[in-house]
From TrEMBL:
Listed name of the protein: Unannotated protein
Listed GO biological process terms: polysaccharide biosynthetic process
GO MF annotation terms: NAD binding; UDP-glucose 6-dehydrogenase activity
Source species: freshwater metagenome
InterPro entries: 6-PGluconate_DH-like_C_sf, UDP-Glc/GDP-Man, UDP-Glc/GDP-Man_DH_C, UDP-Glc/GDP-Man_DH_C_sf, UDP-Glc/GDP-Man_DH_dimer, UDPglc_DH_bac
Domain UDP-glucose/GDP-mannose dehydrogenase C-terminal: from-to ranges: 147-248
Pfam families: UDPG_MGDP_dh, UDPG_MGDP_dh_C
Length: 263
């Protein structure tokens, strides 16, 4: 926990409210406290952009990103946390804090090109996933039926703010695709849900007559959907698993072409 204050006595009083916690309490000045918060989230975003860039290289050279992550994560200086490739990062903190840190750096006279690149790589990842879907349906999205599993920016939340899933869905819609979506937290149109999508009642219903299935949020329930049941309702058997969530072997046994990230 970080407490930022100009008044040391006030900071100690605030910190004392958390005496029952076992976590470390850091007392510092307001500027340092603010920088800690922005820098921490920007660094985590950097790790995610980095591993997505490495995943792109893996696809080009025939490496498996899962093995690469295990190898990198075995180095205690790196660790495995926030090294899971996916459709990109988003939510209420990483995008906002990364942009805020770039602005603070600019006002301080520093050109934060590194963090500019982190954001650029993330935007590229949205495009890369959308292009994977385009390729999966033969190169032309107009009129194609796309089933999307997941809209929240990550599992365990209903937050759609700056969600990679929403960003990718909007790219597909702009290319003329017809989208059906299922997310356990979305049962009706609301703020953040792209206009023009059909909201499905369950994962199987979402896939009805779909030309391709796209997994964009790592909800655990998607792991347990029977691929044979999905195959029975889709028009073609192609899945773009942008979370590397599904059991590739099981889906291939059901006749699907499984395309993940970095493998």
């Amino acid at each position: 926990m970080v407490v930022g204050a100009d008044d040391q006595a006030a900071a100690l009083k605030v910190a004392s409210l958390y005496d029952g916690l076992t976590t470390r309490v850091i007392i510092t000045d307001p500027a340092s406290a603010e920088t800690i918060k922005y820098a921490a989230n920007a660094f985590l975003a950097t790790k995610l952009s980095f591993i997505n860039a490495i995943a792109a290289i893996c696809e080009g050279v025939g490496a498996d990103i899962n093995d690469v992550v295990v190898g990198m994560g075995s180095d205690k200086r790196i660790g495995e946390s926030f090294l899971r490739p996916g459709p990109g990062w988003g939510g209420s903190c990483f995008p906002k804090d990364s942009r805020a840190l770039i602005k603070i750096a600019e006002e301080a006279g520093y050109d934060f090109q590194l963090l500019d690149g982190v954001i650029a790589v993330n935007d590229q990842q949205f495009d890369r996933v959308a292009n994977k879907v385009r390729t999966a349906v033969g190169g032309e999205l107009s009129g194609k039926r796309v089933a999307i599993w997941g809209l929240a920016f990550k599992a365990g939340t209903d937050d759609l703010r700056d969600s990679p899933a929403v960003a990718i869905a909007e790219r597909l819609l702009a290319s003329g695709a017809r989208l059906a979506v299922f997310d356990t937290t979305v049962d009706r149109p609301r703020a953040g849900v792209p206009a023009g999508v059909t909201i499905a009642s369950d994962p199987i219903d979402c896939c009805r007559n779909a030309d391709v299935l796209v997994v964009l949020t790592e909800w655990d329930e998607f792991k347990w959907v029977d691929p044979v049941a999905v195959a029975a309702v889709t028009t073609s058997r192609v899945v773009v698993d942008a979370r590397n969530l599904l059991d590739r072997t099981q889906w291939q046994k059901a006749g699907f072409v499984h395309q993940g990230i970095g493998r």
